[in-house]
Design goal:
By secondary structure, the chain is of the alpha/beta class. The chain is built from 28 helices and 32 strands. Helix 13 runs parallel beside helix 14, helix 24 packs parallel to helix 25 and helix 27 packs across helix 28. The protein is globular, with a radius of gyration of 30 Å. It starts with 11 loop residues before the first helix and ends in a 6-residue tail after the last strand. The structure holds adenosine-5'-diphosphate and zinc ion (ZN) (2 copies).
């Protein structure tokens, strides 16, 4: 294993007198540090930011040394010893110690909770250390009581782990001692991951047997087979092959056909198909081809101006935040790449934040083509071992560039020069559970500020907060007003948008199902011409509600106060709760009145998929929603099939992200009103952003695009302005409402959510807390408590209180919340109080 030089810090013991103590922050919701004595043997090794194992009551916890403690002899309590120092190199840099402290203060959580977000998950991983004896003479260690035993043990068991050795020799084998022996050269320490975390997983895939791999073989086989399920499997396998996946996963085939595993086994026995074991895709990027060599464009004048503004700050080591406002395809990513190059030339490091890695493979590929293996990619579907590896490459400097979602803003990079937040308006940048409930964009700006670094916020539809921060001069706005022209010098025009008023369509008898006739015709024509369609329906499942036509009864989840969604997987219907995942069968009759007329109300992606089968029977339709992408690599598979030429990509909002497909000439929105139903102050903004983003997927210079948007609210400002691609217009329409209620960007909001098993106790907890908040409120408006929008989730009752304050500072909110939390203390066991500063929604 290679070792990388890491900037070392002074040991704690050098700086003050023995006996040495340290203050340690623990990952628990108690807002204080605990003091421990550092045994002499560990004093050399312990540094600020290092993880330590310490006793708390009757358990051992991993904490982080955040500061030097008071001299032990001044303490009036019996101070306990640190059990072990876990890090050779402090896990947490000084900068991250300070930044996490700021996060804890701003988002009103504990420092321990904030630190936990900055450290690799799975704190047991790092204690997997392999030890080996070297050829060096034992020297004084032969006389050292513990050292002697360690050397003897290693002679018998080379390559043993520290934890295994502790089981044999007892816990009195401190890492610090091992490290001193390593420094003397008598043994080698290798930090590795334990095997069970990194072994490859395999999955069963299916393919046609060699004798039947001809294109016309499936038809022959189907003729030979009598079982419908068996025929379906053959048909599905042929379909997957046509879509570019000749060896699909068995699980996918089963899901597609509803066939039993025994059906597949009998086809294998007949020698028609065969099974292959394949390694499970580790990362969505692993099987992407090596990226193309980077193109070297001359920048367009607008790009050059933007880059010049950024590099002026970079060269001067000045802080600056830039709002790069440009529609999809206007060349923003190109500007990020050049800015990162400028930063790397100074030997500084960079972070690129994207909303979701699995949905933005093209962006990641472009960075890889320029920066190669200097990049560590972080993503939500990594396992613990992969996550730890990536974290370590960043911490040691082996990878000076981090690309990832929200949590990558806390990447352990030193000497930071640039943070890019792509699609800065995305709400996935805000963490909800658990604490710290931070907004990665705002942390990015703060982190850049503290490092004299540059922050670039990019978007086609900047948030109202960033738009106003630019107007108020806190950020510098840089505009890329046009799409990049193609090789012939032609820029793609923005697509033509047609609004279909569904009420009118129904009157004209042009609406039978979810898709009105003009949209049906457009999809059919595209499929015939070999052009592609993207179809947005931001609701998954088949039908959102079932209802008894006689009495109005609708099935609800037993654990949550929501109605159940009907899902149809391969013909059978099942009811799903979208909040807790619980599923049950569909009722044959109404349990209240015994009626048999139970109707399916509303439209989910599965229902649209079914309708498409009759609209364009020959078209290949890919469905992308949480149900088809929950498995690792799911997004990737679907996107690849679309790139290989499927006709229609149908899905929820996940299809609106960073896709860039040249053959898409039609974007359809099945129901533009879905997001407007939520009684939340950001509902309009989200709808505007989603519609604008998805509309931007259509067309290029030589293949003009069209957008067809179905709505019952054609005059709603969010829909009107999205139709006109008019961000400015939307902002002007929306600002007065925000100003009137002191909502962001004119004020700050926070929510406090109270959760627990007994409704009355939750309500009482909420009332006591809120009364105290009112006493501490100062200039803050406190509203509530009220039952939350969804009153019960997973058998937990929920109440919430809303706080609002006018002006640019969240400080009064934070003060009130902190005081109340201190006054109230910890809620009773099983009850939770979740504080969310700058909450994205107030439901
Ligand atoms: P955005 O990030 O705003 O969507 P991109 O940076 O991805 O825009 O640019 C869109 C396309 O135009 C990409 O294929 C990119 O390689 C290309 N491109 C960007 N800048 C230039 C340029 N100056 N000259 C030629 N092609 C460019
Ligand atoms: Zn009924
Ligand atoms: Zn539920």
């Amino acid at each position: 294993m290679s070792r990388h030089p890491v900037r070392t810090r002074r040991s704690i013991s050098e700086s003050w007198l023995s006996p040495v103590t340290v203050n340690v922050v623990l990952p628990i919701p108690v807002d204080r540090a605990y003091t421990y004595r550092l045994p002499d043997a560990m004093a050399d090794a312990a540094q600020l930011g290092a993880r330590v194992l310490v006793p708390l009551r009757n358990r051992h916890l991993t904490g982080v040394i955040v500061e030097e403690g008071p001299p032990a002899d001044t303490l009036d309590f019996a101070v306990k010893d640190v059990v072990d120092v876990l890090d050779d190199v402090p896990a947490c840099t000084n900068e991250l110690l300070d930044l996490t402290k700021w996060i804890a203060d701003y988002y009103v959580c504990t420092w321990g909770e904030a630190l936990k977000a900055a450290l690799p998950s799975g704190t047991t991983v790092e204690s997997q250390r392999e030890l080996r004896r070297t050829d060096a003479e034992p020297g004084d260690w032969a006389n050292h009581s513990v050292g002697r035993r360690i050397l003897d043990d290693l002679a018998e068991r080379p390559g043993t782990t520290l934890s295994a050795m502790r089981k044999r020799l007892g816990p009195a084998v401190p890492l610090a001692l091992v490290r001193r022996m390593a420094a003397d050269g008598v043994l080698d320490v290798d930090t590795t991951l334990s095997d069970d975390q990194v072994t490859a997983k395999t999955a069963t895939h299916l393919r046609f047997a060699p004798a039947f791999q001809r294109k016309d073989a499936p038809a022959e086989l189907i003729e030979q087979l009598r079982g419908e399920k068996q025929q379906a499997v053959i048909r599905a396998l042929a379909g997957f092959r046509e879509a570019g996946t000749p060896e699909p996963r068995q699980a996918d085939v089963v899901e597609h056909t509803d066939a039993a595993y025994s059906t597949i086994r009998s086809l294998v026995d007949k020698g028609m198909i065969e099974k292959v074991e394949k390694e499970v895709l580790r990362s969505p990027l692993d099987d992407l081809p090596a990226p193309d060599p980077p193109p070297n464009h001359d920048l367009l004048p607008a790009q050059q101006d933007a880059l010049d503004a950024v590099t002026t700050s970079v060269d001067a080591h000045n802080y600056g935040t830039f709002l790069l406002h440009g529609i999809t395809g206007s060349g923003k990513t190109e500007v990020y790449i050049r800015a990162l190059k400028a930063v790397r030339e100074q030997g500084r490091t960079g972070i690129i934040l994207v909303p979701e890695i699995a949905l933005t493979p093209q962006t990641v590929q472009r960075f890889r083509s320029h920066f190669g293996d200097r990049i560590a990619v972080l993503h939500s579907q990594m396992n613990r071992g992969e996550r730890y590896d990536a974290w370590r490459r960043l911490r040691t400097g082996d990878a000076p560039i981090a690309v990832g979602p929200r949590s990558a803003v806390l990447a352990p990079l030193e000497n930071l020069g640039l943070i890019v937040v792509d699609e800065e308006h995305e709400s996935s940048y805000k963490q909800f559970d658990p604490a710290p409930r931070y907004h990665a964009r705002d942390v990015a700006v703060m982190r850049a500020h503290r490092n004299d670094a540059v922050c670039i916020l990019g978007s086609a539809t900047p948030s109202l907060e960033s738009t106003m921060n630019a107007r108020w001069g806190k950020y510098e706005r840089l505009a890329l007003p046009e799409r990049v022209p193609d090789a012939d010098g032609e820029a793609a025009a923005l697509p033509e948008v047609t609004v279909l008023d569904l009420t009118l369509q129904r009157k004209k008898h042009q609406l039978d199902g979810a898709l009105a006739d003009p949209l049906r015709d457009a999809i059919r024509t595209r499929a015939e011409r070999g052009e592609q369609t993207i179809l947005l329906q931001n609701r998954r499942g088949y039908a959102p509600v079932l209802e008894c036509e006689d009495c109005g009864w609708a099935p609800e989840c037993g654990a949550c106060s929501v109605t159940l969604t009907l899902h149809r997987d391969g013909g059978r219907g099942r009811l799903h709760c979208h909040y807790c995942g619980h599923t049950t069968g569909t009722p044959q009759q109404c349990p209240d009145c015994g009626g048999h007329d139970i109707s399916q109300i509303g439209t989910g992606t599965q229902r649209v998929e079914e309708e498409l089968a009759s609209v364009a029977p020959d078209a290949t339709v890919l469905r992308m929603d949480r149900d088809t992408t929950s498995r690792k690599g799911g997004h990737h598979r679907i996107l690849q099939q679309f790139r290989q030429g499927a006709d229609v990509l149908l899905g929820t909002q996940m299809i609106a992200k960073g896709l860039d497909f040249g053959q898409v000439t039609l974007v359809g929105v099945v129901d533009a009103d879905v997001g407007l139903l939520f009684p939340d102050f950001r509902a309009e903004e989200r709808t505007f952003q989603l519609l604008t983003q998805v509309a931007g997927r259509a067309g290029r210079a030589d293949l003009p695009g069209e957008v067809i948007l179905q709505t019952r609210n054609p005059d709603h400002p969010a829909i009107r302005h999205a139709t006109a691609h008019d961000h400015e217009g939307f902002v002007e329409d929306e600002l007065p409402t925000r100003r009137q209620f002191n909502y962001p960007p004119f004020g700050h909001v926070a929510t406090v959510e109270f959760r627990g098993p007994k409704e009355q106790r939750v309500e009482r907890l909420a009332e006591t807390w809120t009364d105290q908040l009112r006493r501490d409120a100062g200039p803050v408006t406190v509203m509530g408590p009220e039952p939350a929008f969804i009153q019960r989730v997973k058998k937990q009752h929920r109440f919430r209180t809303l706080l609002r304050v006018q002006g640019g500072s969240a400080h009064p909110l934070q003060t009130a919340l902190r005081r109340t939390r201190e006054a109230y203390g910890t809620p009773p066991n099983g009850y939770h109080v979740a504080i969310d500063v700058d909450a994205m929604g107030v439901l």
